[in-house]
Amino acid sequence: MIIPPIGGLGAGSSAASVGGLGQGAQAGTAAGAEPTNFGGALSEAISSLEQTQQNASGAAEGLAMGTASDPEGAVVTVEDAQLAMQLASQIRTKATEAAQSIFQTQV
After folding, report:
1. Predicted confidence pLDDT, tens digits, the chain (107 residues)
2. Helix or strand or coil: residue 39?
């Protein structure tokens, strides 16, 4: 599973080309290539996390049943899913803290 970087821009990127974070949302570069706004990026990330969890569930089931052809690969798949879930949880926590901080800011 490939997890796109969150905190930085890749080589040759600009802030405007990252999912609507620049000065207004850009039109997509290619059909279905990248989401053009934050909601699309979030939906894609959640979908990817769900797929990772399903793959891990299948791998764990294969290990439990003794039908896994590659036990090491199955363990790696389960560990990847665990790390992805931990990352998602930490991102959710940070986003919640940031929103609470914004709401508590006095104007």
Report:
1. 566 666 544 444 444 443 434 434 444 445 556 557 888 998 999 999 999 999 999 999 999 998 988 999 999 999 999 999 999 999 999 999 999 999 998 87
2. helix
Question: Running DSSP on this structure, what letter comes out for residue 55?
Answer: H
d(CA 59, CA 42) in angstroms, rounded, equals 26
- List phi, psi (to 5°) of 25: -75, 135
Give 31: exposed, middle or buried? Use CB within 10 Å, 0-12, 13-18, 19+.
exposed
- Torsion of Cα atoms, 1 then 50 then 85 then 77, to 10°: -40
Q: Where are any strands of DSSP class E within the chain?
A: none
- Give the pTM: 0.60
